[in-house]
Amino acid sequence: MLKVAMVIHIYINLGNISDTELCEKLEILCISFDMKWKEETKSIDKIRAYLSKRLEDNSKLSDTLFIFDDIWKESHYKYLSFAKKSISTSRFKYEENGLNHHCIRLPKDLTYDEAIELLALPAAISLISRLRLKTDEDWNKAKDIIAKKSIKIKLAGYDFNLYGTLQLSVDSLNDEIRQLFEQLAVFKRVSIPIQSIASLWDCEEWEADLHLSEMNNKSLLTYDEEK
User: Does the pTM of the predicted model rise above 0.85?
Assistant: First the structure.
């Protein structure tokens, strides 16, 4: 059965924390994934293993993109290896050949103000990464929207304009597909059979498939053709 599900992005700010504090953050993450174990454990290695197994066994969670922001301790990296997809920012240098992922180093002339401006932006970058912005005008517009914070709406863990950033993806759709997307509004993470979507949109399944694929490409939802 073809199904659709909402995209999962999880942002975790680390900073200058101890192993115990990191363990507590991972325990909270386990709870958010409805994970339970009979015996109480304070072993960060066991929690990492539990998370890794959970992501491997659950297809809905396996594509989760984790944003690990501001890692201070090199030793903490191994405890975050449960994430199959991740973007990480850190304050230390790694040898390129010592990693299994790509490093992007900050320019030496990066100013303090520029560094502050980039704070907490990995989550925003993950949301606009599929918009394929090409011109300086497009990038500057996106940057201005991300930086425009709302006084009325504040979300814990998101120090940028989350709703405005999502709106960028919505606005990139043409009028017809945008109206179809707005009909998919849900209040919790769910899986929806494509037959139901086609019925809602009053179209053939192949047409629904095309529209859902475009929305998937804009990071607005996750489209799983195999389920």
Answer: no
Kindly state the average pLDDT of the residues 119-126.
58
Q: How buried is residue 29: exposed, middle or buried, by Cβ count under 10 Å (0-12/13-18/19+)?
A: middle
Residue with tokens 């659709």: 4
φ, ψ (nearest 5 deg) of residue 225: -80, -10
Length of the chain: 227
DSSP H or E stretch at residue 5: strand 3-5
- The closest of 25, 123, 117 to 69, measured between CA atoms, is 123
**Token pair of 69, please?**
């922001």
Q: Residue 12 class from Cβ within 10 Å (0-12 exposed, 13-18 middle, 19+ buried)?
A: buried
Q: Out of 21-25, 27-31, 77-81, 220-224, which region has the weakest mean confidence (pLDDT)? A: 220-224
| Both structure tokens of 81 | 């290896």
- What is the arithmetic mean of pLDDT over 185-205? 84
Please state the rounded mean pLDDT for residues 119-148. 68
Question: How far apart (Å, rounded) are the C-alpha atoms in residues 98 and 169?
Answer: 35
Q: Which residues of 178-216 are buried (b: 16+ CB within 10 A; e: fewer)?
A: eebbeebeeeeeeebebeebbeebeeeeeebbebbebbb
Instruction: Please compute the mean of the pLDDT values over residues 64-72 and round it to a whole number.
Output: 84
Q: Which tokens hold the place of 43?
A: 């072993």
- Give the strand pairing for 222-224 and 3-5: antiparallel
